[in-house]
Design brief:
Elements (H helix, E strand, L loop, with lengths): L2 H15 L2 H14 L4 H17 L6 H15 L3 H27 L10
Helix pairs in contact: 2-5, 3-4
Amino acid sequence: MDRQIRECMDHLIEAIRNSSEYSSYRKSLEALDRFPGLSDRIMELRSKTIELYHEENAGDLMEDSEELGNEFAELEKMPEISEFLEAEEDMVYILNEVNTAIATSVDIRTPGMLS
C-alpha cells in the first residue's frame, strides 16, 4: 500500500478513535459488559433476526418477527442496552459515511459500489 494512503488511513483511524461517538460507544460497551451474558444475548437475537429473513418458510415470518421484536423491546428497557444500541448505530453511520465517501470519490466499478 502506498505510504501516503497508509498515513491518511492511520490519521482517519485516530480521528475516529478520538471522536465523541467512539468514546460513547466504548463507554456503553463497557457498561454492557458489566452484565455477564448480555452482549451474547444481543448477538443471539441479531443472529436469529438474520436467520429469520433468510428462511424459506415465510408463513411464520410475521409471528417470528413479532416475537423477536418483543424480545428486543424488552431488552431495550435496560438503559445500558438502549445506550449501547444507539452508540453502535452512530458508529455504523460514521463508518458507512466514510466508506460511501471514498467509494463515490474514486472511479472503481465493481458490483454494489457507486460510481
